[in-house]
Amino acid sequence: MKKEWLLLTMLCLLSVVFVSCNQKEQKEKEIVIAIIPKVDNAVFDQVKESAVEAAKELGIVVTWEAPTSIDGKKQKELIENLIHYKVDGILISCNDAEMLKESINKAIKAGIKVGTFDSDSPKSDRIFYIGTDNKKAGKVCAETMMGLYKKANKTPEQIVILSGGMNALNMTERISGFRSVMGDSKIDKVLTSLEMPDYGEELLTYELTHNKKINGVQMVWGVPVLSGGVDSVPALLAFMKRGGISIFFDVSKPLLKYIKGNPNCATMKQDFHSMGYDGVKNMYNAILDKPYKMEILYDVKVIDQSNAEKELADL
Fold first, then answer.
1. What pTM, to 2 d.p., does this model score?
2. How many domains does the chain have?
3. Average pLDDT of the residues of the chain
């Protein structure tokens, strides 16, 4: 009888030790959230910085997994690797909403929480989207452009749109919003840069050089003018000097300096800081099975000559 009690006591002690070790292991296991931007460029720097800021506050790990090109297959490969490494969460800006649907769903089935930022994949099983309300942003672009035409006592003749990725939902939504206000008859062409700044500049240069009827440029993807400003694209600079109307997207010091001195242009400022910071915190809550938001949308802020100096000081 004593032997039986001794055996039972030992089993209980072993059970307690096992449970406490298991709890300790769970407690010490770091939560890892991987962030996949469309491509590694300066546009996403604020997302990276604010994501790291949120991770430090939460005591978790954030990794930055940037593809080498905008080919959706590259992002698929990254998701496959992250499934293998069993990260806890993935936050991705989708280059191709349709192509990535299957990979996102596979990660979800593997127990990984997946959310999208900046560019969504709404038909996938992703658990949330955080980013700009892109269709509304496109409408704001068109309304702002119409306002600039009115100030200049001009009317839109032919407008060229410069886009980024062909299948990125944020691009198609911005163009859709722009069309809904401006109308198709005034839009001459949509140029697709494939997220390559040099190629985007070449496309824009060719159109502005060969079609003098263009009197409006809408960039729903503004990377070509961010690093060097409008001055870095000679054909665009000449177009602006002739009185052309331009609406850009996103902000940089060179671009804001140009807008400050020129009344016939404006740009749209996105809240990239919140995308990274709130995106990580929202994902953290989802991983811990705490309440989280399924959609967080931000409006763009219009920056024109009236407020460019203040924005420049705050940058």
1. 0.88
2. 2
3. 91
